[in-house]
Specification:
Elements (H helix, E strand, L loop, with lengths): L1 H6 L1 H14 L4 H19 L4 H4 L2 H9 L6 H14 L2 H13 L5 H16 L3 H18 L4 H12 L9 H10 L3 H29 L23 H20 L5 H22 L6 H25 L5 H18 L5 H34 L2 H10 L4 H16 L5 H7 L1 H10 L4 H12 L10 H9 L5 E2 L6 E2 L4 H24 L2 H4 L33
Antiparallel strand pairs: 1-2
Length: about 550
């Protein structure tokens, strides 16, 4: 019996963790308790020495002194301040007015704003709740299908987990031992592509079932000229002017594309500000509103991500600048007060403590798990799969997809990723690409019925019973929980398709990474100069 227990202690330990999590025990405490319990068993069985557990204090201190993890509270605080400063409300109102006259335009506006909020807030709860409170009543008012409306809001909110500055990418980079900046660069294109797939699905729905996503009636468009025109022409002219200016600055002034784009955008913003205050009439009301509302978050995105990608700032420094920029934006909107600061700081402290406690528990668990050769058991299990690398990727992604029904992304990142990373590296898989792939997969954990957190966030703000619409005064049916669940299903399928696309086209991730010059070691020649000859009269040949 003892021999069997020694041989199978690692799988028993992993199975016990799954059982405890399914029973609903807190993840951090379950990890730490099981790590210590099986550590003592391993010592009694002679698999471990007591000295192994003496490494725990040093590991915990290493977690607390990890500079990379400082980015988590910074980005969380930035997102909470922006969400409470009214930025999401202004964006949704303006972009909704811009796309509203198009069939399915309001749903596309939600996707667009969801991507912008993801690039500024990085917090799923803030994005889903904001869009649920602001956009869902409008969609219900004008006849959107409830499943489509709830699905697109929940899915757009989860973009915050794949579009930088995502919290899960910070954790993923830390667990895989890779740069957060590289992880951010690799995730940009897949994140934008996933947004495009969402918008493409909405367009497909408008073709197949046009009544599910109608255009807003003219009376719903409030940003219009005195003649009743919406004013798309001047907006198109200004956008074209910005693009042309960026191209000219790049090709004729020799500026780097990112600086040329920034200069052109600032020029357009200055034009909109002058037009707003001096009433010179260059822009339509819609064009002026779009430019004035969109530029501050875009500037914040450049401040945070641009400085990280250019190597000017580390992710932690970028997060600090983002938090400062969010405070300035809230101050400029006259919405910064002590109540807002207190709420944001309390929530940031809770989330940061949650992450650190899980990480400490995962460290205790992984120390014992590796001590009983659990890493070798996982490696032999996964490398023995048929199909080589492709077989490994299929099995791993299927496993993560299934675990996402019961675990959230933090738990997956701290428990599963440290076991999979070494195996992937041994198989020659690029860990940045592997991390982004798993991040896209783990995004489904927010959308899985019945435990998806995005669905819970939306349920908390969606009207469950019949209500009186404040604009039309008519009785409107509420949204059922099953409608929210069914609305999420198509978008979960789109996320699975995105996983397949990243596997099929790895250059979507690796192509965006900054690479230094590659040197072929076979062509390196080392020339050693001959030893210097010194005339020494004591040596016969020099006489």
């Amino acid at each position: 019996m003892t021999a069997v227990l020694i041989e199978y202690l690692a799988p028993i330990m992993f199975g016990s963790l799954v059982v405890f999590l399914l029973l609903g025990y807190p993840v951090a405490f379950a990890l730490a308790a099981l790590g210590l319990f099986f550590g003592f068993i391993g010592i009694e069985l002679g698999l471990l020495t007591p000295n192994l557990l003496q490494a725990l204090p040093q590991r915990v201190f290493g977690i607390m002194s990890n500079d990379t993890l400082l980015a988590i509270p910074f980005f969380t605080f930035m997102g909470l301040i922006l969400e409470r400063s009214g930025m999401a409300e202004d964006l949704l109102d303006t972009i909704g007015q811009l796309f509203g006259p198009l069939r399915g335009g309001l749903a596309c506006a939600v996707v667009f704003v969801g991507a912008l909020l993801a690039a500024t807030t990085g917090v799923v709860a803030a994005s889903v709740i904001s869009m649920g409170l602001i956009s869902l009543p409008i969609m219900l008012r004008y006849g959107y299908d409830r499943r489509l409306a709830t699905g697109v809001i929940a899915a757009s909110g989860t973009l915050a987990q794949i579009i930088p500055p995502s919290l899960v990418l910070i954790v993923m980079a830390d667990q895989l031992g890779r740069s957060v900046g590289d992880m951010y660069e690799g995730a940009i294109i897949p994140g934008l592509m996933l947004s495009a797939l969402y918008a493409g699905y909405i367009m497909l729905v408008t073709v197949i079932r046009p009544k599910h996503a109608p255009a807003l009636p003219l009376e719903a468009i409030t940003i219009r000229e005195g003649s009743g025109r919406i004013g798309y022409t001047s907006l198109a002219v200004v956008v074209a002017f910005g693009i042309i200016a960026a191209v000219v600055l790049t090709h004729y002034a020799g500026m780097r594309p990112i600086w040329a784009t920034t200069a052109a955008a600032l020029g357009v913003y200055a034009l909109a500000v002058l037009d707003h205050f001096l009433r010179i009439g260059v822009l339509s009301r819609l064009g002026r509103q779009v430019v004035l509302v969109m530029m501050p978050p875009l500037a914040l995105i450049f401040l945070v991500l641009g400085t990280i990608f250019l190597g000017i700032a580390t992710p932690t420094e970028g997060g600090a600048m983002g938090a400062t920029g969010a405070l300035l934006m809230a101050l400029a909107n006259r919405r910064l007060d002590w109540s807002l600061l207190k709420q944001a700081m309390n929530t940031t402290a809770k989330l940061s403590s949650f992450v650190i406690f899980i990480l400490i528990g995962a460290t205790v668990f992984s120390l014992t798990f590796r001590g009983v050769n659990g890493d070798l058991w996982v490696e032999h299990l996964l490398t023995g799969m048929p199909g080589g690398v492709i077989g490994f990727l299929v099995v791993v992604n299927a496993l993560v997809f299934l675990l996402a029904f019961f675990l959230d992304f933090f738990e997956l990142a701290f428990i599963v990723v440290p076991l999979l990373g070494p195996v992937a590296e041994k198989l020659g898989i690029d860990l940045i690409w592997f991390g982004v792939l798993l991040a896209v997969n783990m995004q489904t954990s927010f959308m899985h019925p019945p435990f998806g957190f995005a669905l819970f966030y939306l349920r908390s703000v969606a009207p469950a019973r019949e209500f009186i619409d404040r604009v039309t005064g008519k009785a409107t049916a509420g949204v059922t929980t099953m409608q929210i669940y069914w609305g999420a299903v198509p978008f979960v399928c789109i996320q699975v398709v995105m996983v397949a696309i990243v596997i099929a086209f790895p250059q979507l991730v690796t192509g965006g990474l900054t690479k230094g010059p590659v040197q072929d070691i076979d062509k390196i020649q080392i020339e050693v100069p001959p030893p210097a000859q010194y005339e020494d009269p004591a040596v016969p040949e020099f006489k």
